[in-house]
Amino acid sequence: MREAVLRLRYRFWPDHLLGEILSKRWTETAIPVIVLLLVAIAFSQAIPGFLSPNSLADTARQAAEIGFVVLGMALVIVVGGIDLSVGSMFALTDFCALFCLDVLNLPVPAVVAITVAFGAALGAVNGFLIGYLRLRAFITTLITLIIYRSAYDLLLFDYSNTIAAAFPDDALWDFMGGGGVFGIPSVALLYAAVAIFGHIFMTRLRPGWHITAIGGSRRSAYNSGIAVRGTIARCYAASGALTAVGALFFAARLGTVGGDVGVGLEVTVLTAAVLGGISLGGGRGSVTRALVGTLIVLLITNGLTTLSVKGGVNRMVLAGILLVAATIDIRWLKNRTRIIAKVYVSPTYHDMPALPGARIGEGTRFAQNDRLKDVTLIGLGRIEAPEDVILDRHDNLYAGSRHGDIIRFFPPDYEKMEVYAHIGGQPLGMAFDRNDNLYVCIGGMGLYRITPDRKVEKATDETNRSFSSVNDDSRLRLADDLDITDDGRIFFSEATVRYEMHEWPVDGLEARGNGRIICYDPATNTTRTVLRGLKFPNGICVSRNGQSILFAETWGCCVKRYWFDGPKKGQVEMVMDNLPGFPDNINLSSDGNYWLAMVGMRSPALDLAWRMPGFRRRMAKRVPLDEWLFPNINTGCVIKFSETGEVLDTYWDLAGVNHPMITSMREHRGHLYLGGIMNNRIGRLKLEGADPGFVQYDYRWGKKP
Amino acid sequence: MIAALKRLGDHVLGRGEAAITVPIFDGALKPNQLLEEAEVVAQIEGANDLASDGKRLLVADGMRIVALAGNGDGTERVRFDRTVTALCALPDGGVAVALDGVEVRVEGGTSAGGHWTGAAGIPFHAVNAIACAPDGALVVTDGSQRYDTERWAHDLMDRGATGRVVRLDRGTGQGQELARRLEYAFGVCPAGADIVVSESWRHRLLAIAPDGRRRVVLDRLPVYPSRVVAAAGGGFWLTAFAARTQLVEFVLRETTFRRRMMKEIAPEHWIAPRLRSGESYLEPMQGAHLRTMGVLKPWAPPRSYGLVIRLSAEGLPRYSLHSRVDGINHGVVAATEVGDFLYLLAKGPGRVLRLPLAALEKEARA
C-alpha cells in the first residue's frame, strides 16, 4: 500500500523540475513578479477601485517618473556601484527645468535638452570621482547628495517665488505633464520606449555586456580588455540623465519647487531596485526587474497612503522591505549554487522485478562461466577507456581513448598502434557507413564523422528542443551509441539530458528516464528526437529486418525494439525484460543473432534502494560520491540473444582480472573483440564455429566478399 | 526543549549526531601492508580464536582445539560436541572455552569441569571472548542477547545494545555481571585491577573498574574493535574485525531501509561490514570500488578490512598492521604472542598468520 502511494507520488510529482527551475536565471525575476501579483491582489481586495483604469493611469504616471530614476539606479548597481545622490539630483534637475522654462522663458525642447544635459553633468561628477579617481561609490554619492541638496536649497531661496508665480502655457509642456495617448500617460509611453531600448542594450549590445561583466568581476573585466573606468563613469552620467528625465515629467506635472522634492527618494528607488532582484553585489540585474521593483514599491506606498497610514509608518515599511530584500539577496547569492546542487538530484521510484539468478548452479540462461579467461590482450596499458571497438575489412582495429583520440591497431598481431584521428572528447559508440566514413558518438560533444582520409567532421551536436523540458535539451550531452539504417539515417542514443558524461552515477542514482534516442539524417542534415524518457539508453543496433532498431536501456535493465519503418512504424516493443545486469552495446553476430554487452550486474541492495527514492536522495546529500551505493559495474559479461530476445549463450570472466567490465564487443572474422570504458586493454577471443569471413559493416552494406 | 529541537534539526539536515563522518586512518593508524605481507602459517576455515599456553599456539577450530607447531602442523588437544566460540589458556595448564556462545567450560587444570550457562540470572547467548584475571577468575564478554556469534552483523544492523561483561569465580562458581547494555562487547583483557573491554558498535575500548565504573580508554576508532590481549613488554594487541564506512554509518541511520534490507536481502549481500568481500557480484558496490584501468584502489571504502593495533600500556595506539581493501587478510579477530612471533587469526580468508615481533618493534621505531 505504502509502496503504491510512493509509486504514484513519484510518477506524477515532477521532483526534478525544482532544481531545473532554480538553476534558470529567470527565477530571480520570477520571484519579484510573484510578489508584485500578491501585492496587487492584496491591495485590490483591501481598497475598492485600487486597480481601476483611472487609478492605474495615475499610478502609471508616478511609476514612470520614479521608474526612470530606478533605471538609472539599476544601471549603476549592475556596474557594481550605488548612487545615493539621485534624490538631490532629482531636485536640482527639477529646479533646472522650471528655471529654464519660467525664469529664462526658453522653449520646451531647449528646456528638455538643457535639463537632461545638466542631469548627465551632475551624474558625470559622480562618475569621474568613482570611475577615474576610484573613490568609494557609497561615500562619494553620499557627499554629492549633501552638496546637490545644499545647492538646491540655496537656489530655492532665490527663485522659488518667481517659479511659483509663473504659469507656463505650452502645449508640449502640458502634454508631458498630463497628456497621453488612448489614456496611456505620455510619460509611461516614453518609459516603455526607454525600457525596451534598455533591455536590448543590456542583453544584446556590447556596452551592456561590458557593464554586466564589470559588475560581475571588475578585475576579470579589466583583464579581458574592457575599458572599466570609462564605462563606470558613463553609467553614473546615464543615471544622472535618466534622473533628469524623471524630474522633467515631475516638473511638467506639478510645476513647483518645494523643500521636500526628492527627499528620501534614494531609499524608495533603492528599495525598488533591490526588491526587483537587482543584486547589490553587482553584475546581476535587468530592466524587467527594475520595472517590477518600481511597481511593487509604488503599489505599496500608494496603497498604504490610500489606507491613511501615517507617512512615518509608510517610510518604515519601505525601509523594512529594503532590509528583508537585501538580506535575501545576499543569502541567495551566497548559497545559490549550493541550494541548486542540493535540490537538483532527484531520485525517483524505480521498481524492478525479482532479480534473476546468474550464479553457477542457479540454472538460468545467464549462468556464470569462465569462457573469457583465455582472451588475448591488445594494447594492455597503452590504451585507456576503449568504450567501443570496431574493425574494417582490412582487419584494422579502431578504438576510442579517454584522451579524445581514435586509436588504430594494425593486424596481424595488433602490437603496432597509431592515433588515427584526434577529436578531443571521449569516443563512445562507432559505426561505418556505406562509404567507409567512421561515425563516432563523442561524450559531451555529439555525433562526429571521420572520413576515410582521416578528416574529422561534426555531423550534429544538437536536436530539436522539447516543449515540456525546463532545461534546454537541444544540445547533446552524452551521445552514446549509434547504428545506420539502409537509407543512411543514423539513430543514436543520448544516455541522459540532465547530466554530463562523468556524472553518469548521479543519473543512475536518479534512475529516471532522462535519456532519448535521436535520428540524424545526413541527406537533409537534420536532427530529430524520436524517443524520450528512456532510462539511460545505450547500445543501438539496426535489426536484420531493416525496419527497426534494438536498443538497450541500461538502468531499465532491458532491451527494446523501436520500429522506424514498416507497418509498425513508431511502435516500441519489449525484447528482453528484467535482465540480471545492465545492458550496454548491441552488435550483430555472424550466425544471425545479436551480441549484447553487460556492463555490470544488479545487486539486491541497489534494487531495494531503487524502490526507496528518499533513501537515495538523502544518500546523495550526505554521503560523498566515492562512498555512494553504485550499480556494480566491476563484473560483466557478454551474451548472445536471438531476434525474439532468447538468451542463447553467455561469456563471463569469473575472476574479473582481464575484463571486469565490458561495454562493447564486436565479432570479426571468427574472433570477438571486447572493449570496456574503465579498462586499459582490448580483449580478443577466438569463437568456436563462427563465420571466419564475417566483417560486420561489409555484411551490413552487402559488400560480402 | 531547545536541545530536542536541535536534535530534530540535526536529524533532518544530517548534522551533529546524525552526521556520518568516520575518522580517518591517521597517525599511528597510517596504512601499511604489514598484515597483508604476513607469513601464512595455516589455513583453517573454521578457526574462531587463538590462545597461547606459553609454548605453543592453540587454535579453536570448529569443535576442537588444535595445538599448532611453528611449521603449521596441528595436533588435536580436545574435542567438544559444539563449536568453540572463545578460547583462553589458563596459567594452571587448563583451557577455558565458550561452546556455541551459550556455555563457558573449563577443561584440564585445577578447576577442570567447571561450567557456567549464565550469570546474574541471564543465560549466556553469544560469549565471544574469555580472559583470565590475575586472581584466577574468568572474565567473559557476551556479545549480544539476541543474535549468536556468527550473526554479529544482524546485531549491528539491529543497533543491538545487549552486550555484557561477566566475571566468573572459578573457586566459588559464582557469576557477577560487571557491565551490561554494551553495544556488542567483543574482547576482554585484564589490566591491573581494571578490565579492558571492546565495545564494537561504539568503536571504543572501555576500562571497567571492580566496582563497575566505566572509563573510556580509546574511542572514535575508524574500525569495529574485536579481541584485545596483553602484549609482552606492556600494552595490548587490539584486533579489528571490520572497518567503518560512511555508507554503513548512513544505513545505520536509515531505519526503514535497514529493516527492509534485513527482511528482503540475504545477509551476505547487505550493506554491512563483512569479514571478507569481493566474492560475488551481488555484493553492494560503492563508488570508489570501481576498478579503473584494472586497478582496485586500496583506499576505497572497505567492505572488509584487516587491522591490528598495538596499544601502549595507557591504551594509546603506537603502530598498526594493515591489510587494505585490495588485500586478503581481512577480518582479524584474534592475536596472541608465542615466543618471538605475533600470531594473528584473519577470519575472512581463514588464515593463521604470523609476524616476527622484533621486526614489528623495529617498524614501530622507524
UniProtKB/TrEMBL annotation, chain A:
<dbReference type="Pfam" id="PF20067">
    <property type="entry name" value="SSL_N"/>
</dbReference>
<feature type="domain" description="Strictosidine synthase conserved region">
    <location>
        <begin position="480"/>
        <end position="566"/>
    </location>
</feature>
<keyword id="KW-1133">Transmembrane helix</keyword>
<dbReference type="Pfam" id="PF02653">
    <property type="entry name" value="BPD_transp_2"/>
</dbReference>
<protein>
    <submittedName>
        <fullName>Ribose transport system permease protein</fullName>
    </submittedName>
</protein>
<feature type="transmembrane region" description="Helical">
    <location>
        <begin position="106"/>
        <end position="130"/>
    </location>
</feature>
<feature type="transmembrane region" description="Helical">
    <location>
        <begin position="261"/>
        <end position="283"/>
    </location>
</feature>
<dbReference type="InterPro" id="IPR018119">
    <property type="entry name" value="Strictosidine_synth_cons-reg"/>
</dbReference>
<dbReference type="InterPro" id="IPR001851">
    <property type="entry name" value="ABC_transp_permease"/>
</dbReference>
<feature type="transmembrane region" description="Helical">
    <location>
        <begin position="30"/>
        <end position="51"/>
    </location>
</feature>
<feature type="transmembrane region" description="Helical">
    <location>
        <begin position="290"/>
        <end position="309"/>
    </location>
</feature>
<feature type="transmembrane region" description="Helical">
    <location>
        <begin position="175"/>
        <end position="197"/>
    </location>
</feature>
<dbReference type="GO" id="GO:0022857">
    <property type="term" value="F:transmembrane transporter activity"/>
</dbReference>
<dbReference type="GO" id="GO:0005886">
    <property type="term" value="C:plasma membrane"/>
</dbReference>
<feature type="transmembrane region" description="Helical">
    <location>
        <begin position="235"/>
        <end position="255"/>
    </location>
</feature>
<feature type="transmembrane region" description="Helical">
    <location>
        <begin position="137"/>
        <end position="155"/>
    </location>
</feature>
<keyword id="KW-1003">Cell membrane</keyword>
<feature type="transmembrane region" description="Helical">
    <location>
        <begin position="63"/>
        <end position="86"/>
    </location>
</feature>
<keyword id="KW-0812">Transmembrane</keyword>
<keyword id="KW-0472">Membrane</keyword>
<dbReference type="Pfam" id="PF03088">
    <property type="entry name" value="Str_synth"/>
</dbReference>
<dbReference type="InterPro" id="IPR011042">
    <property type="entry name" value="6-blade_b-propeller_TolB-like"/>
</dbReference>
UniProtKB/TrEMBL annotation, chain B:
<dbReference type="InterPro" id="IPR011042">
    <property type="entry name" value="6-blade_b-propeller_TolB-like"/>
</dbReference>
<dbReference type="GO" id="GO:0016787">
    <property type="term" value="F:hydrolase activity"/>
</dbReference>
<dbReference type="Pfam" id="PF03088">
    <property type="entry name" value="Str_synth"/>
</dbReference>
<keyword id="KW-0325">Glycoprotein</keyword>
<feature type="domain" description="Strictosidine synthase conserved region">
    <location>
        <begin position="129"/>
        <end position="189"/>
    </location>
</feature>
<keyword id="KW-0597">Phosphoprotein</keyword>
<protein>
    <submittedName>
        <fullName>Strictosidine synthase</fullName>
    </submittedName>
</protein>
<dbReference type="InterPro" id="IPR018119">
    <property type="entry name" value="Strictosidine_synth_cons-reg"/>
</dbReference>
<comment type="similarity">
    <text>Belongs to the strictosidine synthase family.</text>
</comment>
